[in-house]
Request: fold
Amino acid sequence: MTNVKGSPGLWRIVLVAAAVMSVSMGLRQCFGLFLAPSTAALGASAAAFGFAVALHNLVWGLSQPFVGALGDRFGARPVLLCCGLLYVAGLLLFAVSGSRFVALDIGIGLLTGLGIAGTGFGVLLGAVSRAAPPERRGWLVGLVSGAGSAGVLVLAPLGEALIAQAGWREAALAFAGICVAMVALSLLLGKVPAQGSTRQEAGPALGAWGAARMAMGHPGFVAMSVAFFACGFQLMFITTHLPRFLGLCGLAPSVGASALAVIGVCNAIGSYAFGLLGQRYSPKRLLAGIYATRTAAIVLYLATPVTEPSTLVFAAVMGATWLGVVPLVSALIGRLFGLANFSLLFGLAFVCHQLGGFAGAWLGGIVLDATGGYDAAWWALVGVGAAAALLQWPMDDRPRSADSRPQAAAA
Reply:
């Protein structure tokens, strides 16, 4: 077998996965830029837009285990192609429809939610984890995870400029065209090789249902998944409502786009760094530290005047911890259960993340419509984040397999 360190197949998989992740995640992180202009044109409220983004997260989360199971069984490429086309269809509906329900709930909520389930973390990280040798897996997963916000560096300023100069519908059409290019790029993924070390770590062939039952019976997996709720809650509130919040504070729309770009830069660095750190230190403790750091950053941001410099510093801190959770959660899943059903099990944990995203995006709109501001929603982010840190720190991270369940239970 070719030495994996020089394997062109491995690097093709990593580069294609990183590029697809960059576009797929970058597009959705720009939804908040469309809040004010699209709701005015469609006659919708901020809560209606927040619900559409919340529905996007809910559909993504609920479909992720099933899409992940398809990726485990049939490989990543066919799933990427099918879900990528759904992503394109959702953006097109958002761009051209004059109906609030069709543009927001069907376009943004349902179709892009299904689309990102197959072009985001679960399927792509499963492909990279299987192709990579153990000694390089953490930092390669971190590299691909970091690409999830790298795309926003280009897409956020591009979207803001297109909305200002051409209109929000034209900007959405341009985003749909970029998504078509992402689908075409997915064709280059090829077949994911299974390295010898990966096969040894795959664990017993339990089937999807058996693997799911085993995971849901592991107290550590359950604790990690529940804490993952806070990640989605905090991040989706920020991506959906930060631009509008800054407008209420009297800052220019360009500050919101700049903040998203700073998040993207710092996320790329942070995800890569946490991928490396997760190979040397306890992933569960690093996760607890991320949740605590984010929560402290929110408290400090609210305790000082909201200015452009303070916003960019806040964005840098949040970005550095933004998707650093993903390589750590991936490492814990691999440690607990092996890689045979990685995409399925990541999808199960991700359901909680997306329930949090649903709550964060929708709550922001509800609070804004009810109070004219976001104060109550921000403090909800603080409470949820603190609870997640306390839950994650003592997580049971002992490996569990089909053959070791009785011993683990008795330990």
